[in-house]
Design goal:
With about 475 residues, the chain is an all-alpha fold. Helix content is about 70%, strand content about 0%.
């Protein structure tokens, strides 16, 4: 997201920026698939991932008041090469994530035309491509989206719809309407011996990605060393409350086999509003949700590219990618980004179902981001040792041991998610075990492999520079 250069981001705006980038109503259908057991998995995921990520991000952001973000942290801990690997994983993950959120936008938009179009792959691809290229064009023109606009999108397109669906679910409950899930001890505390229960973590972990993303805007935050920790705390509370209650709202109304990952939110709203004779409000609600989703994309469109730009300026990418246009925007990186997103859209043709394609993209995105978090948690431990005597505005309780415990929990969460990501879900048509494994593994290798070539490129470039310098000195 592009932020004005003046220090204009307040605590509220920062909370909305974080929540808007992470807390998305589009994540609710995927987590609603797991019924009342989602409560257990949300709390478990918060303990081993969301809370550790927030605490570590808060402490790391308090170390540095001028620069923030994963590239700067890992560069300080382990050097430029590891810093480049970390920012590459963060950036390339968005190439996979964009098609999934854009498919949600396309599925939601069908309520203006024909909801049946949500299962039409060609329709989804055409909307995805036109929307993303349109947003890229807007950014290339230098349209500066302020923090106030992000707050507006988060409130209108995320908080209000979530509050509404939670309210409608509460009315549904007290009215004695039939429930599709039950809150028995057996369902609230699922058997951990069942593979499907662990697979649900992929969807939930995917919903928690990006807590550290806003730290790249540290220069624009008012009193960042104090504001960031507070914002992370309030954002965690907001995200957990809205996601758990919002997912349950869908789960109690729609049978599991009727939940569509692309337009499940609108399915639930349609059912709710029809019962209360409020179907006339569906177009209004659709516009609000679309606005929230577009605001989320704008938040993610520039931030990872800004981090990759720093790596390009250090020589890891050809100088071609380090160029900016007259609006000071990394235009060539954004165009390359749009081309790659277009290619990833073909995942909708590789899977036999829209749900299968959506799951594949979600799982790929989560795996790539988890690898980045592994680097971040290890870097946090290294920086804690490196800056052991530095006075900061926020420290994880417990000092050195608190950092080890927090980062250790985060690494456990990452390890679990990385392992179960290779297991295909049984309730979604992904074309069989081997088909899923081949496509999934090939996708991971194909997206990480370029790092090796960029390392070689940077090394060769440095050698040429050293030789040229020595010749000049002679």
């Amino acid at each position: 997201m592009i932020i004005p250069k003046t220090k204009s981001i307040t605590l509220f705006a920062l909370v909305m920026l974080m929540a808007g980038a992470i807390d998305s109503i589009r994540n609710l259908p995927a987590t609603a698939l797991f019924g009342s057991s989602l409560i257990f998995f949300f709390i478990f995921s918060a303990i081993v991932f969301l809370i550790p990520t927030a605490l570590v991000s808060a402490e790391l952001s308090s170390y540095f008041s001028e620069k923030g973000g994963i590239f700067h942290w890992t560069n300080q801990a382990f050097g430029k090469k590891i810093g480049f690997l970390a920012i590459w994983l963060q950036w390339i993950n968005t190439m996979v994530w964009f098609p999934s959120i854009l498919s949600f936008i396309a599925g939601t938009a069908t309520y203006f035309i024909d909801p049946a179009l949500s299962t039409n792959k060609l329709y989804l691809m055409s909307i995805i491509l036109s929307t993303f290229w349109g947003l890229t064009w807007v950014n290339l023109k230098g349209l500066h989206i302020s923090a106030k606009f992000s707050s507006f999108c988060a409130v209108v397109g995320m908080i209000i719809p979530m509050a509404l669906i939670i309210l409608l679910a509460f009315i549904w409950l007290i009215s004695g309407k039939p429930l599709q899930i039950h809150f028995t001890a057996a369902e609230l505390f699922p058997s951990l011996s069942h593979t499907d229960n662990w697979i649900s973590l992929t969807a939930i972990m995917a919903a928690f990605l990006g807590m550290e993303l806003a730290t790249v805007h540290i220069k624009e935050v008012i009193n960042p060393k104090k504001t960031f920790p507070k914002a992370l705390f309030f954002a965690v509370l907001l995200i957990l409350a809205t996601m758990i209650l919002g997912a349950l709202a869908i789960a109690i109304v729609l049978p599991e086999n009727k939940i569509n990952l692309v337009n499940g939110v609108m399915q639930a709203f349609t059912n709710f509003l029809a019962v209360y004779h409020l179907s006339w409000s569906i177009p209004i609600l659709t516009v609000m949700i679309l606005l929230g989703s577009l605001g989320s994309i704008v938040s993610w469109l520039i931030s990872p590219a800004k981090g990759l730009l720093h790596a390009a300026e250090l020589g890891f990418l050809p100088s071609f990618f380090a160029k900016k246009n007259t609006q000071n925007i990394p235009s060539r990186l954004l165009i390359t980004q749009a081309i790659l997103v277009s290619l990833f859209c073909f995942a909708f043709l590789l899977m036999p179902s829209v749900n299968g394609s959506y799951w594949l993209l979600t799982a790929l995105s989560t795996q790539l981001y988890m690898l980045m978090y592994v680097i971040m948690f290890i870097a946090a431990i290294a920086l804690k040792i490196k800056f052991k005597n530095k006075v900061t505005s926020f420290n994880i309780p417990g000092g050195k041991w608190g950092m080890w415990l927090t980062s250790g929990l985060g690494l456990i969460g990452c390890a679990i998610t990385l392992f179960i990501g290779f297991i295909p879900p049984t309730g979604i048509d992904v074309g069989g075990f081997m088909h899923y494994e081949i496509v999934f593994t090939s996708g991971l290798i194909g997206m990480i492999l370029p790092v090796v070539f960029f390392y070689a490129y940077q090394s060769t470039k440095n050698k040429k520079f050293i030789i040229a310098t020595e010749l000049l000195l002679e």
